[in-house]
């Protein structure tokens, strides 16, 4: 009774030692050498090889027992690669069939492969139906030359002994890292299969540490494996693609004044001083800015001097005209010159009075930095600032040309301010520009103006993102609209 216990204890000790060696491997090459060479201490075999899974690189023999590195150009390695590809394909088909039926290969299951005319294989399991388990999919199974196609079976005797064992490497997530093939003269026992199955789990766990991170495509492939689960996922996906969703458009937006009063330069000149500050509330009659009056003051002084001179000349001529007929004729000329001087003086005085610009009504002064205007030359009629009513605002959005989908007057808009992430304001589109124009950011967009419909309105000058709500459309169209539009532009259909 002690002999079996002593053998089992030794096997467990060797199993623990090989597991530790696999986890301590610093690279895939080192791990492959440990697998195909040091496993001999646990179970006897003549030859062993590790075949790497087809992903992410094409399937190939990565390690062969007795060799520091496998040479893919040798006849043995090429034959061995073909055999492993057949075994991997047959095991994948058997696993797929088991997953579709809700069963999987279990411990002790013998797969009897039978050749079919096209070179494929079909497996029949004798174990009762069990839930699909990734660990059970990695259970080894023996095979002989009769299990291979005739072309490969013909070379079996030249390379291998009678009995072989295929040990798949599958981690707990269902990813395949290929498989290990062992060959020897004696048949494989259930104890050998159980020990190698446990080692296969350790090897798969170690290989997972060297494998690249699983991409979302590979995760989707694992999720959509054949079976009831895949049918449910595909059905849910098909239903989700036809679910109606509102077609929305996002656009940068700003709260702008509605019907503001434009304060313009009253005449040509240079801005000397700004009395108001940006966003300052002003009352009617409050000084806003003043132009440089140096030139106008000189012109006014000259006009005043000319008027005084013309007035004195006219007075002297009028006195002499009482006694001299010739001076009576000059009096009319002096009168005309006096009137001309009076007109010029009056015009210059009115121009000088317009140098200081006052607010025609109450509001908020809207303009840029005062330093940008001080000393700037302006022309008559040039806009300097706006006078806006803070309670009378509207939403101005800029919809890019590619996103102009169902943006029509009457559509609803929701503003999400950048400064208030928890606030939102509803509005309704009033006008949409018929022509797209470049924005300051260089994007060609349509200008959209909307009126806020709620009682609470955002402050003037608030910027954010406007979501324009359109008609309802299937989710598939919502997701594929931009790709289809881009493809149509490239393909011209």
Q: Can you describe this structure?
A:
- The structure is a single chain.
- The protein is built from twelve helices and 22 strands.
- The chain folds into three domains: 168 residues, Beta-Lactamase (2-Layer Sandwich), CATH 3.30.450; 126 residues, no CATH class; 99 residues, Efflux pump adaptor protein, beta barrel domain (Elongation Factor Tu (Ef-tu), domain 3, Beta Barrel).
- The strands form five sheets. It has a six-stranded antiparallel barrel with strand order 8-17-21-19-18-22.
- Helix 1 runs antiparallel to helix 2 and helix 10 packs antiparallel against helix 11.
- The chain is rod-shaped and about 160 Å long.
- A hairpin with a 5-residue loop joins strand 20 and strand 21.
- With 493 residues, it is α+β, with helices and mostly antiparallel strands.
- The N terminus is likely disordered.
- The protein is 38% helix and 26% strand.
- It comes from Trinickia soli.
- Keywords: Coiled coil, Membrane, Transmembrane, Transmembrane helix.
Overall form? rod-shaped
Instruction: Determine the structural class based on helices, strands and strand pairing.
Output: alpha+beta
Mean pLDDT: 79
What is the count of β-strands? 22
CATH class of the largest domain: Alpha Beta
Work out the helix count: 12
Major sheet characteristics: 6 strands, antiparallel, barrel
Q: What gyration radius follows from the Cα positions, in whole Å?
A: 46 Å
* Subunit organisation of the chains: single chain
The proportion of strand residues reads 25-35%
Named at the architecture level, the CATH assignment of the largest domain is: 2-Layer Sandwich
CATH topology heading of the largest domain:
Beta-Lactamase
């Amino acid at each position: 009774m002690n002999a079996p216990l002593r053998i089992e204890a030794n096997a467990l000790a060797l199993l623990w030692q090989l597991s530790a060696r696999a986890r301590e491997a610093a690279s895939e090459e080192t791990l492959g050498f440990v697998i195909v060479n040091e496993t001999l201490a646990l179970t006897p075999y003549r030859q062993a090889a590790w075949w790497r899974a087809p992903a992410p690189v094409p399937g190939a023999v990565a390690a062969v027992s007795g060799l520091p590195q496998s040479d893919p150009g040798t006849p043995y390695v090429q034959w061995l690669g073909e055999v492993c590809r057949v075994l991997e394909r047959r095991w994948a088909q058997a696993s797929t069939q088991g997953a579709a039926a809700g069963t999987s290969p279990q411990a002790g299951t013998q797969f009897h492969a039978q050749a079919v005319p096209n070179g494929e294989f079909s497996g029949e399991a004798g174990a009762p139906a069990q839930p699909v388990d990734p660990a059970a999919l990695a259970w080894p199974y023996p095979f002989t030359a009769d299990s291979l196609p005739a072309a490969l079976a013909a070379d079996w005797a030249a390379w291998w002994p009678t009995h072989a064992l295929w040990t798949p490497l599958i981690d707990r997530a269902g990813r395949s890292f290929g498989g290990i093939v062992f060959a020897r003269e004696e048949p494989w026992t259930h104890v050998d299969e159980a020990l190698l199955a446990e080692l296969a789990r350790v090897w798969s766990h170690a290989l997972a540490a060297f494998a690249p991170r699983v991409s979302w495509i590979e995760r989707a492939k694992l999720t959509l494996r054949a079976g009831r689960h895949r049918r449910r996922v595909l059905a849910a996906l098909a239903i989700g693609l036809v679910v109606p969703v509102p077609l929305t458009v996002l656009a940068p937006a700003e709260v702008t004044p509605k019907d503001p009063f434009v304060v313009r330069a009253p005449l040509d000149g240079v801005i000397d001083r700004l009395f108001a500050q940006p966003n300052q509330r002003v009352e009617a009659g409050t000084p806003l800015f003043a132009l440089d009056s140096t030139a106008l003051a000189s012109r006014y002084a000259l006009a005043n001097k000319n008027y005084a001179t013309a007035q004195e000349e006219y007075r002297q001529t009028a006195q002499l005209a009482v006694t001299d007929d010739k001076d009576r004729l000059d009096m009319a000329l002096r009168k005309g010159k006096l009137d001309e001087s009076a007109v010029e003086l009056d015009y210059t005085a009115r121009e000088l009075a317009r140098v200081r610009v006052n607010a025609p009504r109450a509001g908020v002064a809207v303009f840029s930095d005062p330093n940008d205007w001080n000393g700037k030359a302006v022309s008559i009629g040039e806009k300097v600032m706006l006078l806006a009513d803070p309670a009378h605002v509207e939403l101005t959005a800029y919809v890019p040309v590619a996103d102009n989908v169902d943006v029509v007057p009457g559509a609803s808009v929701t503003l999400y301010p950048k400064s208030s992430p928890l606030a939102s304001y509803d509005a309704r589109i009033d006008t949409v520009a018929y022509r797209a124009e470049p924005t300051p950011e260089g994007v060609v967009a349509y200008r959209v103006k909307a009126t806020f419909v709620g009682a609470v309105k955002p402050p003037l000058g608030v910027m954010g993102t406007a979501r324009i709500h359109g008609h309802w459309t299937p989710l598939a169209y919502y997701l594929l609209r931009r790709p289809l539009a881009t493809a149509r532009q490239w393909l011209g259909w």
